[in-house]
Design a protein that fits this description.
By secondary structure, the protein is mainly alpha-helical. The chain has helices spanning about 10-60, 70-114. The protein has 2 helices and no strands.
Length: about 110
């Protein structure tokens, strides 16, 4: 087979396409990383708020849970179960994010080597 040279205009179009695609996947990569960080920050803030709330209930001198250690234990148990479920969901979503991020890295690497 006789190969014909590719015109310079076609090479320019291909080059522009690859650069645009690289920029697009780089942006997706950055957004995906930032989203994962926000999820983790939200979960850690939720844990801190739960600990603060349970501590406030346990040390309250007035109110529903004043001198009611059994009530505080039940609230702590319920909160712990809720945090376990939310933490597990957050962890699974972060694992999915890591897979997608790895795919973006591979695509960026392919477009760099082209």
């Amino acid at each position: 087979m006789d190969q014909q040279p590719v015109p310079d205009t076609d090479l320019g179009i291909v080059k522009d396409f690859l650069l645009t695609e690289h920029a697009h996947f780089s942006q997706l990569f950055r957004e995906n990383e930032a989203l994962g960080e926000r999820r983790m920050q939200f979960f850690l803030g939720l844990v801190a708020a739960a600990i603060t709330g349970i501590t406030a209930l346990a040390t309250a001198e007035k109110g529903l849970f004043a001198n009611n250690l059994v009530g505080v234990v039940w609230v702590a148990l319920g909160t712990s179960i809720l945090l376990l479920v939310v933490g597990w969901l957050t962890y699974e979503r972060l694992r999915q994010r890591d897979k997608v991020t790895e795919e973006y890295k591979q695509i960026r690497h392919l477009s760099n080597s082209s």
